[in-house]
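Section 5.1 Outputs to date
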Amino acid sequence: MKARTGLLISAGSIIQQGSQFLFGIIVARALGPADYGWFSIGRNALIWAATLAPLGLDVAMIRYASQHGATAQFWSVLSRLRVIVALISVATMVAIVGFSGIALGSGAALVMAASLAALPFVADSALLGGYYRGMRRPALFSVIFDYGQSALRLMVGGGLVVFGATVVVFALANSAIAALGALSVAVVAFSVRPNAGQPGSSINARSILTVGPWLAISLVSYGLLRILDLMVLGAHVSSDELGRYAAIAAVSVFVQVYPMTLSQALGPEIAELSMRSDARSAGLAIREFVGRASVAGAFVYGGIAIFGTHLDLIFGDKFHFDSWTLLLMSTAWLLSGVLNPTGYALSMTGRHRSESMLLVGGAALFAFLLFALVPTLGARGAAGALLLAMLFIQGGRVVLVSRLIDSAVVRARDLLPPVLALGIAKSIDLVVEHYLGQSFATLVGECVTYTAAYGLSVLGFRYFRRRLQPDLAR
């Protein structure tokens, strides 16, 4: 991937996540904790359902499009798969809304229906996104989905605040924005499809469908980590507390944005190396990624885990950000962002069944821990359950991939950046709290100081490491 393309995709992914975060702040300030909790359940339900409906075909598409995507026959196969995904999306939407009405009442069902209205479009764009990435054209997808949709989201969010929208209206607006972005992706995909004169391919829909369900099990199981805690917590705490937890979840998940952005091109690269039976090079590519992602992810992690307790200055006085809940949850999502791409070494090399069984086990452990911890510990119990489940999943992946490449995926030095980031952020926060107190201005000052201190620490570490290497070589 060219440096300019990589920069475009990285910036687009960060802008997309940033716009979702800002839209969440707009909703939180407009609705308050109680309704924001329901909005978050609906939004996360859409995210989870969008991993179920494509049946894992979006991930399989990265693998197969990299091998066969430039042919007209493959486009015909893709078109048939899109119809299957659309039908599954509608069935999934009806099932979730019906279950919500039975379990939570008509009000919850209405919010869920509004939130899931875009599911057929989102699932289709996920499938096309896999095609774009497999074809090594992720920049086209990024420009439409990340840049265009982000701008629209912020404009619509601001307008809804002016008109005093309800939670159902905000949910419908979020669905409409997602649907418009997905439709744009579909129109552009049709315009750049391979022409009939290009060589044929031996691939067929059945071949991809045999791999897809295993990948779907993996994605759906992992997706439960985004919504199951909200559902269980909602049954044991007040709507206000649920909304506060949902706000913490929205902030904490931002930790994985930059590491996940760095991994955009990793899937096709691993699939290509797998075709050449070069498992060792695939493992080395992942190990290099883990090193870079640890440094980048730790920066956001330290800032959110420590300064996140002051985000009531942004979300509003009704929101409270518990320090332990923030630390536990942000640590879980740091593990996800840095180590999640180890799953590519399994799913892209034909070991998708091992990956699926590991993720199913992680989801089952998460559910057990939630029911065991939430009744007594509340939000902290839910965050602790998430961290323990994430340790199980990512630890299992690291062990499997290390055996595959006969080398360690994670090195001791990869553990240093998160510890360094926490130490710097906590030191700055203690000093500011003691001498200046907390305000929006001091929060901004803390973030600027932390950015400079962490950046200088990383640069200093790299400088001394280069200086020491020649000496060690002697």
